[in-house]
Amino acid sequence: MKPKIILAAMILSGSTQVWAAPAPVSEAASSQSSIEKRLAALENMMQSRNLLQVELQQQLNVLQDEVSQVRGITEEQSYKLEKVLQRQRELYQEIENRVSQAYSQPSQSAQPVYTEQASSQAISSDLSENEAYERAVALIMKDKRYDQAIPEFQTFLTTYPESVYASNAHYWLGQLLTIKNDPVKASEHFTAVVNEFPNSNKRPDAMLKLGTLLQEQGLAEQATKTLNELINQYPSTTAAKLATERLAKM
Predict the structure, then answer these.
(1) CA 138, CA 153: separation in Å to the nearest integer?
(2) Which of 81, 130, 193, 238 has the greatest number of C-beta atoms within 10 Å?
(3) Which of 199, 132, 209, 122 is nearest to 172 (CA)?
């Protein structure tokens, strides 16, 4: 009986090994499926990243195009502004001498006085403002249309009351109105330069013109006061020298 029992045990033992053998195959299949899922997930991630890179590159290209356009516009505006500034510098060097030729008064003190300070005049960064001022100045410099220059400067002051050229515009209006033999209105503009623009490089000349006009209107006391203030405040200027000469003749 014992050999039979042993044989049965061996059969049962072999049967158990036969049924247990498929287990590793199932685990391998499960592991392979997991790897495939991971690979698929990685592929999706790579595709998403590639799509994102393409989209970012497209956005970058658009931004580069916009920057190039802005740079081109900026360079064009800078070029135009530089041309305007160059023209302004040239005008400041010539304009007073040109206007002086239109004066009919024989007195040298009544003539426009050129000052070296003109070249240091502040320049506006607003192209429209520069163009408006240059247009008014051109009526004097190029066309010698003094009557038309008056409303042009008046319009300029109305449009750009805070302009860096405001004191100059008042000064030229005073000059032009003097040419038109309107000393009262001319005095108003010279007074505006003197009272409203203490740092203007036109102030010494405006004080000289104002003193001269006041004297010609018979207002000797006011003229003397204005000319003395000019001499005291700007003793080293040409305007002060002319004021001294005028006072000596009064």
Answers:
(1) 11
(2) 193
(3) 209
Q: What is the Cα–Cα distance from 237 to 225, expressed in whole angstroms?
A: 17
Name the percent of the chain in helix, strand, coil, to the closest 5.
Answer: 80, 0, 20
Q: At CA 186, angle to CA 172 and CA 156, rounded to 5?
A: 45
Report how far Cα 237 is from the mean position of its chain's Cα atoms: 33
What does pLDDT average to over the chain? 76
CA 193 to CA 27: how far, in whole Å?
99
Question: Two tokens at 136?
Answer: 């008014």
The structure's pTM equals: 0.57
Q: Which of 159, 189, 194, 158 is closest to 174 using CA atoms? A: 189
* pLDDT tens per residue across span 201-243: 899 999 999 999 999 899 999 999 999 999 999 999 999 999 9
Cβ 237 vs Cβ 208: under 8 Å: no
Q: Which residue has the tokens 């053998």?
A: 21
Q: Which residues of 120-156 are buried (b: 16+ CB within 10 A; e: fewer)?
A: ebeebeeeebbebbeebbebbbeeeebeebbebbeeb
d(CA 228, CA 214) in angstroms, rounded, equals 13
| 100 vs 175: CA distance, rounded Å | 9
**Contact predicate 67/113, CB 8 Å:** no
8 A C-beta contact, residue 177 and residue 189: yes
Residues 6+ apart with CB under 8 A from 117: 201
